[in-house]
Amino acid sequence: MSTPVHGKDAIRLCNKTVSDLANDIARPGYDRARLKPGIVHVGLGNFHRAHQAWYLHRLMQTGAALDWAIVGAGVRATDAVMREKLLAQDCLTTLIELDPDGISVEITGAMIDFLPVEEGNAALIRCIADPAIRIVSLTVTEGGYFVSAQSGGLDLAHPDIRHDIANPDAPRTVFGAIVAGLRVRWTSGEGPFTVQSCDNLKGNGDITRTAVVTLARQTDPDLADWIDAKGAFPNSMVDCIVPATGPAEIALARKFGIDDAAPVTHENFRQWIIEDDFCAGRPDWDCVGATFTPEVHTYEAMKIRILNAGHQVLANAGELLSVETIAGCMADRDIAALFAKVQNTEIAPLVGGTPEMTSLEYVALITSRFSNPEIHDTTRRVAFDGLSRHRGFVVPIIRDALADGRPVDGLALVEALWARMCAGVRENGSAIEANDPEWPALAAAAEIAREKPDTWLAQSHIYGDLARDERFSQAFVRALDMIWSEGARAAIRGYTG
C-alpha cells in the first residue's frame, strides 16, 4: 500500500523526476532509454493504460520484452489532447489501485511515444508500415467497428468508410490506416503485423478481421487475400473496471506527491484471455498473468453477458434515480435487487461457466467488484453509447432467452429503463446531457414512446424483429408504461417483488 504525502508539493511526473517520488511508489526498474517500439496502440485511453500497457510494464520489470514498447496513436481529433498530456510527462502513467483495504500507486513506463494526430493519418501509416511494429492493437469502443446492423459485417455505407474507399492513402478510420499500412508492407515484401482488438465485443478478433479484409477488398482484392491469409486477428477478452479521469483523480495523485495530468484509477482485479494467434511474434504476457487459450469465447460470453450487460442493468436505472456511481447503484436497495434478480434468473442461466467458476459464482464476483466503494465509476460513463451497448450486450441475451422459453420480464424492464433515460430528464427533473453518438434520434424515439411504448421496439437497427415477439413486446410496454406513470422505482419493485 502507498502512503499519502502531506505538506509537500507534488512532483511533476517525467523521466527526470520519477526517482524523486516517495519510496513506496513502484516505478520502472528497467532502463526506458533502451526500449524499442514493437506495438502501436490506437485509442490510448484509461483502459489501455490500466490493462494491456500494465501487463507489458510488468513483463518489462522482469527484464523481458524491451523491444515491445508501445507507441500511442489516435484517429480522432480529441486524441490530440491525450497526446499533449502524455508527451509532456514522457509517456509515463500513474496507476492508482483502489482496493477497499488500501490504495497502491505505481508508475508505468511501457509507452515511449505518441504519434501526431492528423487528418489523413500519414504518421500512423508510416509507423505501422515499419517492420519493427509487429502488433497494432485497438481500444476504439464497441461503436468504433462500423458494424452493419443489417449484415453484421462492415458498414460500407457509413460516410467514414466510404471516404476511406475513395481515399485509401488518406483514410479517416483506424481500419483505413491499417489497410494502408499493410499495403506498404505487402508491396515492399515485408510480412504483416497482428491486429489485436482489446474492445468488449463478442469475437472481437473476428470482427476486426472482417472490417480490415472487407475494406481492403473494396480497393484491392489481392491485398485483401494476402491480409486474410497471412495476417492475424486474435480474439481476446479484457476485464478491469477503469473509471474516467477527472479533477478528483488528478487530486488523488497529488495526495501521493505526483503531478500527473492524466492519472488512471482502477479496481484491484484484471483479467486478459487471449487466443494465441500472432503472425509476427508477441510478448510473453502469460508470464505476468494473462491466459493464452483457444477457449476465449467461453470466458468472453460470461464476461460480456454478466459484467457488460450487467452494467446496463444498473446504469440507466441509476441515471433516472440520480445515483451517480455504479457502487452507489449497488448500495441502493431497489437497484441492487433488480441487478440480482435479472442476473440470477434471466442472464446467468444462459451463460456457461469457465474452468475456474460457474456463471452464478461469476455473478457473485461481479457483485463484489461493482460494490467496491472506492471505485467512482459513474453511471454516465457506463451508460455512454447505449445504442451500441444494448444492441451488443443485452439484445442477444433477450433473443436467446426467448428461444429457450425463459423469462424476459427483467430484461424488458432494463430496455424500458433505457428508453425512459433517453428522454433526457431524470425523475427529479434534472437534465441528462446527450450521452450517445445517436442521442438526437434516440431522444426523439423516447419522446414518441412515452405515449406509444411499442414504437421504441420498432427501431429495427437495435431490435431487429423483436417487436413482433408478443411475449417480449408486451413485457416491454407494461414496464415503460409503469415507469412513466408511477416511476422507475415503482416499476423495479413491481418486478423484484
Automatic annotation (TrEMBL):
User: Which GO molecular function annotations are given, in alphabetical order?
Assistant: mannitol 2-dehydrogenase activity
Ranges where the Mannitol dehydrogenase N-terminal domain occurs: 38-286
Per its UniProt entry, what is the enzyme's top EC class, as one word? oxidoreductase
Q: Which residues form the Mannitol dehydrogenase C-terminal domain?
A: 296-484
Where do the TM regions start and end?
A: none
Matching Gene3D superfamilies: N-(1-d-carboxylethyl)-l-norvaline Dehydrogenase, domain 2, NAD(P)-binding Rossmann-like Domain
This protein's superkingdom? Bacteria
**Name by which UniProt lists this protein:** Mannitol-1-phosphate/altronate dehydrogenase
UniProt organism field: Hoeflea phototrophica (strain DSM 17068 / NCIMB 14078 / DFL-43)
